[in-house]
Every structure is written in C-alpha cells, then in structure tokens.
Specification:
This protein is mainly β and 206 residues long. The protein has strands spanning 10-17, 26-33, 37-43, 49-51, 67-71, 80-85, 88-92, 101-108, 120-125, 128-133, 148-153, 158-164, 172-178, 183-187. The protein is globular.
Amino acid sequence: MIEMESLFYVFRNITFADVNNDGLPDLLLKTYNPYRFISFYEQQPDHNFKMKRFEYGIDRIDAYGSGQVWFDYNNDGKIDLVICNQNKASLFKNTINNGNNAIQIELRCTSGNKFAIGGRAYVYSGSQRYMREVSCGQDECVQFPYRLHFGVGTSSSVDSVVVLWPTVPQKREVFRNLIVNKVYVLTEGVKLIPALSDRNLSLHPI
C-alpha cells in the first residue's frame, strides 16, 4: 500500500530500485499533471510504502526531466539515479552508509539473445529470496541497464543464485558461494567471467 498525497496526479515515470540495500525495492514517481514533481516512497518491512521525498533529498531534483533510470555508476554497490532532461543528463550519487550489502549480476546467454533479455536471476541469501528480470527499454531517452542489482540487507553471504535463461526449452543453472558486495558475470554453461577484475571471483555453475 502506498501512502499518497492525492490520487488525482498523472504519473509519467514509475521506477523501482532498492536504494538502501535492505532487500525491499523502493519506488520513485514522477508526475506531470497538474504540476511536475518527483516523489520517493521507501518500502517498509510490512511491504507498505512510506513517503520519504524530503529525507532522501528527492524534493531538490528538477522534475522536468524526460526519463529516469537507476544504476550503480561507480560500482560501490549503491544504486544511483540518472534523470534525462532534453539534451542533458543529471547524475545523483547514492551516499547512504547504513552497513547493508548488495550483489550485482550480469547475465550472458550463449544460446539465446546475448544479454539474456527476459532471463531471471533468483538470489538466495539466508531465509530470503530476491528476483530480478533482465529487460530492455524504459522511458524516453533512457534504457534499463543489463546489470541486475540486489540489496541483501545485513546478510554477509549469498547461498546461491538460480538463473532461468531465456531459451527454448528454458534452461536452469545454479551458481553457489558468491560473495556480497561484488559484481559477477554469469554466462550460460560457462564459468563466471568477472565484470570488474578487481572485484570478482570466477566460479563454475553446478
């Protein structure tokens, strides 16, 4: 349930991202009618969404941008925000330091489309399961990154990652013993190839 100021706004952009790496995707809304502004809703442990526009500084962002996308531009494990406005882009760095961990995964498909669009990754960490799907397209002037970002809260390890490849028939692979706060490339039927050589390990699917 979302705590809304009004239900009479027309929303132009709606995007989810785990901004504080607690394992719960948060929600960014941009409206353009009757007037333009950006709202940010933090997902709570009970899965309700609470307005945190001012606490996160979202109220200071120019709402006249034409598109928005989340990605970790500096590979520090925190998801950052880019808003496009006609012929320029504005980058907003995530500076939250709450001790939560994350893992980032890129999929490479060898028997389907290269970037595994439509593929899904399930991350198992402790008693929790997280899912992200590779998609393409997002909004005007922006494109979803192929890299999947998973906040895992205070968990210090990832038990396994299950990948459902976008193949016919669908292929399933399991990768184990991944480390938090790393970036991995999972290639169908092949060992992991580091996305960043100084941040990754090479593992074999089992």
